Amino acid sequence: MKLSFAEDSAEALPLTLLEPGDLPGWLEAQDASTRAWVEASSFAGTLGQALVIPGEGGAPAAALAGYGTQAQRRRGRFALAAAVPALGSARYRIADGLPPEQAEEEALGWLLAGYAFDRYKAQSPAKARLVAPAGIDASRVEVMANAEALTRELINTPAADMGPDALEAAARALAAEFGAQCDVTVGDALLEGNFPMIHTVGRAASQAPRLIDMCWGQSGPQLVLVGKGVCFDTGGLNLKPGASMGLMKKDMGGAANVLGLAHMIMSLELPLRLRVLIPAVENAIDGNAFRPQDILTSRKGLTVEINNTDAEGRLVLADALALADESTPDLIISMATLTGAARVAVGPDLAPFFSTRPDHADALRQAATKAADPVWELPFWEPYEPMIEPGIADLDNAPSGGQAGALTAALFLRRFVDNAPYVHFDIYGWQPTAAPARPKGGAMQGVRAILTALPEMLKL
């Protein structure tokens, strides 16, 4: 599915955005026929409303979209996208009512509203298309929209069709599209390559565990993206209850998000060296599944006591982070659907992150506002370090007590990064209820904020 702006032409209908209080003044400037049509409708300028206005002979001549109040727009994003479903399948150009500072956000929202997951069932008919508003970088907006569509598609695909082998295929396809190098270490070769925890977590599954390693770019600072690629998580021997297992196809959401970010970086040809590391596994149950109380030795040499096999994401990320750190890159960013605690703390809409550098955190906060991609900083709180130290091993993968779960997971991961600035995102990767430009299903979170912040973080 390609998301793109429409070409401007005479067929593009002029679309006016109206707040509720602006409608009376707008009507006064219209001819009698238009006034009668609008007054006979229920259109009031409320958020999500749309009205197509006929011209001579009854053919559509123009349209109105409700833009809601400023208070309504502050409570959400992509206000214009709320009206897209009511605009049919015509082509539109915005004639009036769009604040210039909101043009990019609303244009992106319109494109994202055109996404539908239709791999298994035909979805809604063709949606309204938009001519790119004046003053925006249309190509950049299209890149962001299509990268987000890729991320959504990967997360939405069930594990039967998105296991470690399919996730590898998706990474290889992306690498081929942009001329990147993609190397994959599979199965027992993980032991030979010193990725013991990736192997341990994934060895009980029908598809072999693997580490995907994609590189692109020849010059500039080095950025390493590490994405959790647990294609399905049963919880292992600490088996999840059915209600908790129902959404576990999305447990590779971190991998999907870093692939979406990589798509953006390579499409926009940012002047950097990019490396993407994805430990791709399925946490399954078999006779060789790892067990509670096992003690694993990581790539870095740190030992880890397993107190819950359902805390597997941090194990596979740890080996990948250790590899990333060995090259002393300029920045490491990990993304993972890691803890339920993060969702309890900030809900599904915010992307919580941790940063070892305050200036990087500041850059992300500022970029998030600009990119309409909300994030929230949580701390690497060092007084909690003893909580991840079990006594008979260097680290505990699941501290008892149930408190500060997102923070202890982040502290665990930080133990594997010594040589580079580090940012960790503990995302949800899922839109639980439909919202403007965001259908229920797989979600990209924090990626546009990262993209917008990278020039500052890496001094590009």
TrEMBL record:
Q: Domain Cytosol aminopeptidase: where? A: 308-315
Q: Does the entry feature the keyword Protease, yes or no?
A: yes
The yes or no answer to whether the keyword Methyltransferase is present is no
Q: Which domain of life is it from?
A: Bacteria
What keywords sit in the KW lines? Answer: Aminopeptidase, Hydrolase, Manganese, Protease
Any Pfam family hit = Peptidase_M17
* Cellular component GO terms, alphabetical: cytoplasm
Q: What does the record list as GO biological process?
A: proteolysis
Listed GO MF terms: manganese ion binding; metalloaminopeptidase activity
Signal peptide range: none
| Name recorded for this polypeptide | Leucyl aminopeptidase
Which species expresses this protein natively?
A: Primorskyibacter sedentarius
Q: What is the lineage of its organism?
A: Bacteria, Pseudomonadati, Pseudomonadota, Alphaproteobacteria, Rhodobacterales
